[in-house]
Design a protein that fits this description.
alpha+beta, 4 helices
């Protein structure tokens, strides 16, 4: 991961965006401390999806089991549909 100061990042933003488009991650620093990361959008979306799946799994763990067949579920799903 490349590190770059905030002032320099401001002047080289187009170059940094091209690097990020090609998969690189860039850390932006201020007074030697990291304050931000430029990461490819797909990496952020992937992390967001992973968090959503984990939240769903946690909620699902608390659900009560239901004893019914696939056929029953399909009948309930189609109840009220017009033919």
């Amino acid at each position: 991961m490349r590190e770059i100061g905030a002032t320099e990042a401001k002047t080289r933003l187009p170059e940094l965006l091209r690097a990020v488009e090609h998969g690189e991650t860039v850390a932006i620093t201020r007074h030697g401390k990291r304050v931000a990361h430029l990461v490819p959008a797909c990496a952020q979306e992937r992390a967001s999806r992973a968090r959503a799946v984990e939240r769903f799994r946690q909620r699902r763990a608390g659900w009560k089991p239901v004893a019914c067949s696939t056929e029953e579920i399909l009948v309930w799903r189609h109840e009220g549909h017009r033919l």
